[in-house]
């Protein structure tokens, strides 16, 4: 059996050529505008071995390529592409500026013309890469440049996959046939999912006479049907084959490695470089030290207010899980009339109109001022400024049994704030689903960590200190 993928449509046939064309055009456009806007200073330097226009051409060709902007973004965020473009172009501008300093030619360039060149090229890059892709997505949403998909899997997996395609029409994927090891319930219908066409033998006959762009499968062993049988059949085609397991979670990373010839897929885990860890730690120490000096009067005022408004200690401490699941003692300003241990059975989260919260405590919690003593946890090394929020031990033990991958959040130091908090998953999580969404944000933060992301989270946290979900 040799089943070939149909090739229809100019974009489908020449998609890779368009990417190559962009690789060639981007340096040409950047260099051409540089020569046009800066005139003689771009090429008339007889004392230099390499002229400035050549710096621009080489830096643009090399650094944009390294920025990963020429790959496929069919299934990825265009916002991510825009950020890659911005960071790559800033790197190009920095390299060109560095070369002008090194060759002592900075004074020969007009700052206005150079700035105009940098902004104009950035705008053209955004339009040619992000703008064209956005237009293509609109085209796909209307049925153009679509890819046909043959799906193999159980009814639940097929319905879930069809719902995802229907929710993301810009991807341009359409299920044209569905086969599986078991027939669905006749009463169940999912929009976008064709009716069940049969089992493995029916699939063999269908592949003999039909063409498709993608084969997607989520195999469940049933009635003696093994994975090797399905793979043997799909491997006898010339169509791209994609495994989309129903059991996969958004928090998984699916990193492929090998032990000898044995393929191994890493589902969870974090492998940050030593330099990244040290950079994050230095960032934490620098900002925390400066912050403590600036807000020390505020800390003193809150401490006095807590002491005089209700009986009890100023600080509340509780055991939490930290890096690698190790316990540490977290500090907060006391906001409740009780001092409950973190591993106390039946420990309740704070809720709206919670009678345990003092009047001053309600204000402190609403503005997140009760969290300020955790800056000392950061200095001690138990926490970071940004990371997954640490939960009470009792809550950890509860949710780790209900949410797959829950404890993977502890592969990073816990933080005073985090991605989950700026996305709205702050305060009480009254349902398992709400906690699962918080965990998903925590694991996404770990997968995409950068110092730039930490700064973004801190800025958004400061701008949105008051939260209706904090009580």
Give an overview in words.
- With 471 residues, the chain is of the alpha/beta class.
- The protein has three domains: 10-141, no CATH class; 147-248, NAD(P)-binding Rossmann-like Domain (Rossmann fold), CATH 3.40.50.720; 274-463, no CATH class.
- Helix content is 47%, strand content 11%.
- The strands form four sheets. A four-stranded parallel sheet has the order 2-1-3-4. The protein has a two-stranded antiparallel sheet with strand order 5-6.
- The chain is flat, with a radius of gyration of 28 Å.
- The N and C termini lie far apart (64 Å).
- Mean pLDDT is 81; it is low at 1-14.
Quick structural overview:
The chain has helices at 10-38, 52-66, 78-102, 111-141, 155-167, 200-209, 227-234, 274-309, 359-366, 374-380, 393-399, 419-422, 432-447, 451-463, and strands at 147-153, 173-179, 214-218, 241-243, 255-259, 262-266, 315-321, 327-333, 384-386, 415-417.
Spans of 5+ residues with little confidence (pLDDT < 50)? 1-14
Report the portion of residues in β strands: 5-15%
**Distance between the first and last residues' Cα:** 64 Å
Number of domains: 3
**Order of H and E elements:** HHHHEHEHEHEEEHEEHHEHEHHH
- Give me the secondary-structure category: alpha/beta
**Chain-averaged pLDDT:** 81
Strand order of the largest sheet: 2-1-3-4
Oligomeric status: single chain
Strand segment count: 10
Helix content: 40-55%
Number of helices: 14
Taking Cα atoms only, what radius of gyration do you get, to the nearest Å? 28 Å
Approximate shape: flat
The main β sheet shows up as: 4 strands, parallel
């Amino acid at each position: 059996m040799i089943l070939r993928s149909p090739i229809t449509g100019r974009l489908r046939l020449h998609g890779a050529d368009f990417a190559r064309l962009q690789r060639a055009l981007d340096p040409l456009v950047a260099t051409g505008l540089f020569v046009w806007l800066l005139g003689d200073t771009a090429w008339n330097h007889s004392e230099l071995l390499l002229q400035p226009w050549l710096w621009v051409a080489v830096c643009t060709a090399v650094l944009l390529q390294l920025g990963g902007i020429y790959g496929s973004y069919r299934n990825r965020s265009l916002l991510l592409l825009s950020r890659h473009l911005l960071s790559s172009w800033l790197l190009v501008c920095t390299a060109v500026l560095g070369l002008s300093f090194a060759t002592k030619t900075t004074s020969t360039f007009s700052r206005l013309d150079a700035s105009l060149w940098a902004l104009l090229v950035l705008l053209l890059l955004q339009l040619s890469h992000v703008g064209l892709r956005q237009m293509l997505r609109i085209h796909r949403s209307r049925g153009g440049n679509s890819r046909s998909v043959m799906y193999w899997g159980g009814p639940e997996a097929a319905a879930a996959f069809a719902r995802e395609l229907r929710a993301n029409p810009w991807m341009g994927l359409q299920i044209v046939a569905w086969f599986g090891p078991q027939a669905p319930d006749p009463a169940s219908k999912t929009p976008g999912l064709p009716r069940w066409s049969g089992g493995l033998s029916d699939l063999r006959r269908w592949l003999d006479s039909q063409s498709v762009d993608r084969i997607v499968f989520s195999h469940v062993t049933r009635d003696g049907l093994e994975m090797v049988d399905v793979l043997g059949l799909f491997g006898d085609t010339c169509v791209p084959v994609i495994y989309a397991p129903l059991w996969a979670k958004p928090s998984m990373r699916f990193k492929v490695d090998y032990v000898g010839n044995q393929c191994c897929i890493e589902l969870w885990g974090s492998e940050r470089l030593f330099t990244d860890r040290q950079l994050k730690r230095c960032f934490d120490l620098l900002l925390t030290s400066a912050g403590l000096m600036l807000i020390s009067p505020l800390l003193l005022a809150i401490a006095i207010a807590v002491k005089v408004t209700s009986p009890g200690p100023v600080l509340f401490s509780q055991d939490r899980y930290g890096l690698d699941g190790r316990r540490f003692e977290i500090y907060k300003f006391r906001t409740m009339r009780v001092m409950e241990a973190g591993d106390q059975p039946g420990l309740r989260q704070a809720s709206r109109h919670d009678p345990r919260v003092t009047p001053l405590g309600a204000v402190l919690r609403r503005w997140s001022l009760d969290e300020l003593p955790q800056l000392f946890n950061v200095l001690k090394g138990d926490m970071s400024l940004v990371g997954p929020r640490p939960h009470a031990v009792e809550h950890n033990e509860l949710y780790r049994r209900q949410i797959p991958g829950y404890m993977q959040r502890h592969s990073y130091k816990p933080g005073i704030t985090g991605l989950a908090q700026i996305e709205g998953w702050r305060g009480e999580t009254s349902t398992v689903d709400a906690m699962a969404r918080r965990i998903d944000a925590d694991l996404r933060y770990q997968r995409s960590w950068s110092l730039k992301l930490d700064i973004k989270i801190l800025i958004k946290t400061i701008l949105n200190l008051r939260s209706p979900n904090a009580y």
